[in-house]
Design goal:
595 residues; Amino acid/polyamine transporter I; Cationic amino acid transporter C-terminal domain-containing protein; transmembrane; L-ornithine transmembrane transporter activity
Length: 595
């Protein structure tokens, strides 16, 4: 019985390996330059966040402090981005977080992440297509909405009020572009992103001529005398909803930065990926952070936060300062930016499907590559059609939050994977026999004598990382669900909260005390283990802030995925056959020791 459980555990945690000479080999066409990757990252990140999210957070959650919300979200995204950048240098392959998890944590966790990434990209593409359709419709006074409601109504409660044929058409159009080739899609993306960036810069420059510093310091008396505003309006000042509102806004703004993982998903189509991917990720996050903060500053100084229109923030802001004609300039930038975001949502989806299918964890025919176009044509069509159907019939507001689970889980697993690999011994050091006295567990934990990782120190570190993750989950859960008790100085809850904080610091110190792998990479995450650990804690906190309904939908999706993995993926995994043919490192070590 014990042997069977051990065998099952080994099967579920088997890790994908790449030979050095085949690391850069790919059936996909390597044609994307550093410039292409950076523009792809910026375009997929800088769409709906600028034209929709800024107004919603400023009006409903944070007020003028939306600038700090974006800065906090940017820091959280940079922490995850640095971990992605290291893996892009380590493993320049398609699949992004799925592949990174497979090579470090193991197969089951990689499948969980990949399965959620599929849902994330499908919902993200469908919701972006709906946003693009709505924004276009607003420029023509919602003529299409009236027509579709009259001729294509949907009378089921779970669907939207009407079938959005325009949103479906946008998904199918981009699917055709991606089938033709990623380079051609990148050229169009570059042109539209140039339009978007030009409009955003114009918004900032022109907006700065219409600002009023008073809007950042509105008195409470002035706010309380307002009668022409709907909804909650706060107490004025820079923090009208308190610093809690700023933090809540940061949790929302965090999702404005999720597009940067598109860069990692194109690892097999980038030229010189080990250099280009880390640089592109860092440039993407830097440029987007500056522009998000710039737009937030201008908007909150042009219009009092309680008068900001959350649905059309920029057009209404310029109408407020008597520049209504600017609406059409902004419309051109918005359509370009949201179209690029749609491209950014649909482009990585077939790459993730291709990576998972190539490994045999889902049906292998999905990974077929067109011999002339060198694109994953089946995966592209499959993903595009799925997004088109969802965009056609679903009102996705209740589903959008669900895609964040996949994103946050992916970010957390990539950060944990960096920790795992940074403290793992190299294969050469494992094979090397060492004449040393076996260290006790106490010595390995507190005073490891090895200057390089060994199997013993790596095992200790794995246990510490798991303990830290579990304790961090409990710490965040107490902070979120029992914060009232903490505020009231409830002795039991407060004591448990303080114990969790002490344990978390204790685990961090012990992990930092373990020897690290000194292998040289083009890019390495700085301040390990602190950056990955902080990233995991922030992501865990945001995951626990999601609604119970989101977790129910997540459970249904995961149950479906486990059925596919249990009845197909587990038995058809490429790594399963490779492990049967190839001796394990531990086997080679045993034979070396015995000789």
């Amino acid at each position: 019985m014990t042997s069977a459980i051990h065998t099952l555990y080994n099967s579920l945690t088997r890790r994908k390996t790449f030979e050095a000479e085949t690391l850069h080999a790919s059936q996909l066409k390597r044609c994307l330059t550093l410039f292409d990757l950076t523009i792809l990252g910026i375009s997929s990140t800088l769409g709906t966040g600028t034209y929709i999210l800024t107004g919603q957070v400023a009006h409903e959650t944070a007020g003028p402090s939306v600038i700090l919300s974006f800065l906090i979200a940017a820091v959280a995204s940079v922490l995850a981005g640095l971990c992605y950048a290291e893996f892009g240098a380590r493993t320049p392959r398609a699949g992004s977080a799925y592949t990174y998890t497979y090579v470090s944590v193991g197969e089951l966790m990689a499948f969980i992440i990949g399965w959620n990434m599929i849902l994330e990209y499908v919902i993200g593409a469908a919701s972006t297509a709906r946003a693009l359709s709505s924004y276009f419709d607003s420029l023509i006074d919602f003529t299409l909405r009236e027509y579709f409601t009259q001729h294509f109504p949907l009378h089921a409660g779970m669907f939207s009020a009407y079938a959005d044929l325009l949103a479906m058409s946008f998904c199918l159009l981009i699917t055709v572009l991606l089938v033709i080739g990623i380079k051609e899609s990148a050229v169009l993306n570059n042109l539209l992103t140039a339009v978007n960036l030009t409009v955003i810069c114009l918004v900032i420059v022109v907006g700065l001529t219409k600002i009023h510093g008073h809007y950042w310091n509105i008195s409470p008396d002035e706010v309380h005398n307002i009668t022409n505003s709907t909804g909650k309006i706060g107490d004025g000042g820079f923090f009208p909803f308190g610093f809690e509102g700023t933090l809540a806004g940061a949790a929302t703004c965090f999702y404005a930065f999720v597009g940067f993982d598109l860069v990692a998903a194109t690892g097999e189509e980038a030229k010189n990926p080990q250099r280009a991917i880390p640089i592109s990720i860092c440039l993407t996050l830097l440029v987007c952070s500056i522009l998000y903060c710039g737009v937030s500053i201008v908007v909150t100084l042009m219009v009092p936060y309680y008068l900001i229109d959350p649905d059309a923030v920029l057009p209404e802001a310029f109408r407020y300062v008597n520049l209504p004609a600017f609406k059409y300039i902004i419309g051109a930038g918005a359509l370009s930016g949201i179209f690029c975001s749609l491209l950014g949502a649909l482009l990585p989806l077939p790459r993730v499907l291709y990576a998972i299918a190539s490994d045999g964890l889902i049906f292998r025919f999905i990974a077929w590559i067109h011999p002339r176009l060198q694109t994953p044509i089946v995966a592209t069509i499959f993903g595009g059609v799925a997004a088109a159907i969802m965009a056609l019939v679903f009102d996705l507001q209740k589903l959008v939050e669900m895609m964040s689970i996949g994103t946050l889980l992916a970010y957390s697993l990539v950060s944990i994977s960096v920790l795992y690999l940074r403290y793992q011994p190299s294969e050469e050091s494992i094979l090397q026999t060492e004449d040393r006295i076996a260290e006790s567990f106490y010595v390995r934990l507190f005073k490891p004598s090895a200057i390089r990782p060994t199997k013993d120190t790596a095992t200790v570190t794995r246990y510490l990382i798991v303990s830290l993750a579990i304790n961090g989950f409990l710490l965040c859960a107490i902070q979120i669900f029992a914060s009232d008790y903490i505020m009231r100085k409830n002795p039991l809850v407060l004591t448990l909260f303080l114990i969790c904080i002490i344990l978390e610091i204790f685990f961090v110190i012990l992990i930092a005390n373990q020897p690290k792998n000194s292998a040289s990479l083009y890019f390495q995450t700085p301040l390990v283990p602190y950056v990955p650990i902080l990233s995991v804690l922030i992501n865990t906190y945001l995951i626990l802030k999601l609604s119970p309904a989101t977790w129910i939908r997540f459970g249904i999706w995961m149950f479906t995925g486990f059925l596919i993995y249990g009845f197909y993926g587990f038995w058809h995994s490429s790594q399963r056959f490779d492990d049967d043919r190839r001796p394990l490192i531990s086997d080679r070590q045993s034979s070396s020791d015995s000789s």
